[in-house]
Design a protein that fits this description.
Length: 260
Amino acid sequence: MSGVKKPPNGVKATAEKSAVRRPAPPLMPQSVRKLDPSPALSSGLGLTSDRALLRMVERLRGIGIKDEAVLLAMAAVPRHEFVDEAFASRAYEDAALPIGHRQTISSPVTVAKMLELLRGAAKPVETVLEVGSGCGYQAAVLSKLFKSVHSIERLESLYLKAKEHLKRTGFKSVGLLYGDGMAGLPGQAPFDAIIVAAAGLQVPQQLLEQLQVGGRMVLPVVEGSKQVLAVIDRLGPAKWHRENKDIVNFVPLLNGTIAK
């Protein structure tokens, strides 16, 4: 969970591309209108938060997020409902915020960039595994984009918090689980896409094996003194292709579980 940092020379930074703001296309084009607003947005969300959310989406578009389905999905999830009350006023800033247990909710631009990359897989994505549910925010956005979403959280306290957030905001279709994310979900595999919200020293082999041929994994990986956002495509039964993107800053990817 993170905020995207300025990369060194040689690493492409999508978030830094657009210094000049171009006229924005309509927020809800006909092609993605099927993504309905969440219950929280359509019933009683305060105007201040509503406007802040839409400004956040326009800001994402302005810095280079081009996938309208991703923008609309993020417009349908009230981010302030997934952070502690003390940080609700900052929910729509482009910043990672603490959610307890030394964990964070990723910045909006990080979530948007990872989802945009995930949707660029060679085959259509329907089934998704998320490793690191956190507060449940990214899982909610994923559920607006993909048919089947399973999300694993290793910290029981955060799992319970995410479960409550998703229930309260009406996102009941997410398959939320308390368990070791590095082990994945072999019983539900293979997945069309896997997204990991914590940075490990290497890509977990168990997750690679649970990726569908033609599928894509997006995750941060530690390389020396920095973390890079990696995109891994499975090209065959024993063939993967990796491309590094931006420099990022996520919490560590750890195995095992921690009970409440």
